[in-house]
Amino acid sequence: MDAVYNAVDAITGLKGRLLDYTLRAVTGGRDAIGEVTVKVDFDGTVVVGKGSSTDVIEASARAYLNAINRLVRPAAAPQVKEVGP
Q1: Which of 23, 34, 41, 44 is the most exposed place for a label (fewest CB within 10 A)?
Q2: pLDDT of res. 1
Q3: pTM of the predicted structure, to 2 decimals
């Protein structure tokens, strides 16, 4: 996981410090889906990310990228579309 996170850091130009890493099985069986939750510190801003896949490394990368996306693009206020004249 360290190599994946270092590669993502190099590509994005952001440096995160992993605070917590959790892996749990969402489904059972041979092709079980694993869900990874990470808590990452980006220079004092702590962000949680989640990702899932049948591959643990892919789920981990997805979780880390989810955390980065939450850091750089916080949830925008819901947009209301007005209908009518």
Answers
A1: 44
A2: 86
A3: 0.83
